[in-house]
Amino acid sequence: MTVPNDVLIQEAVQALGLKDLGPIGAVGGQKAVRLVDAANGERQVLEVIAVDFATDEALKRAEREVSLLRSIANANVVLVTSELVELGNPPHGAAWVEEYLDGDDFGAIVGADPWSWDATRSMGIDVCNGLAEAHKRSVIHRDLSANNIRRLGDGSYKVLDFGFARHTLLSGVTVAGQPGTPGFLSPEHLNSYSGGPMKMSDVFQVGNLMYRALTGVLPIPYAGDDFEYVERVRRAAVTPLQTLRSDLSANQAGVVMRALHPQPARRFLDAAALRNALIGTP
Question: Is the dihedral of CA 75, 197, 106, 48 positive or negative?
Fold first, then answer.
């Protein structure tokens, strides 16, 4: 895996006419994330990837992500503010700019203490509202993990990082398989049913986030044993929510458990359907 070095980062800063203020978030990996000032003084986020060659899969993912996010104007999806810029000819990297978001990732704010139904429902509605825009375009996120959802300072949520998204109608811009994050996978990540991405897979992952918030634990936690984890994901073996939260109403627990049903067809059909169900379940 090629990683972006300081020379590549500064090349991106110069190509986009930015002022580098240093790294933001985790350091390392194939993507560098920098806090920058634009020419107008507005604080933004620069994302830089290094590639080995023009057909590098990382470049394809970045192109897909930027193209998708530039087509969406939704309060619950991160805003991309620039085109993707290839660095070098042939390219040895690429960069783009996103809006700066205050607040914290879901993983930083969720803990062992259970959230209230109202707080969890609010999060679920916002996440589904953002996903619904992607689903309208037949795009599946596929990696709704704790670090890809961010709570802003005003309490609202945004969906981040569509780098592993898959367009179900444009197979030429997809990658094989269904990438995801252990602990946040749906049964379809294992090709248990259709073998392809579907909107109900995103619904399962939203249910996963809500269950985590409501109980303090993941419904199908990953403990380091790949085989054991895969078997539990394949069965979608989830402790009933009301067993852990007897204070929830049957309707409240039922919405989350339906989102986590082992069979995709038994879940809500897409993010908009889950959003509407949450709105109707105070």
Answer: negative
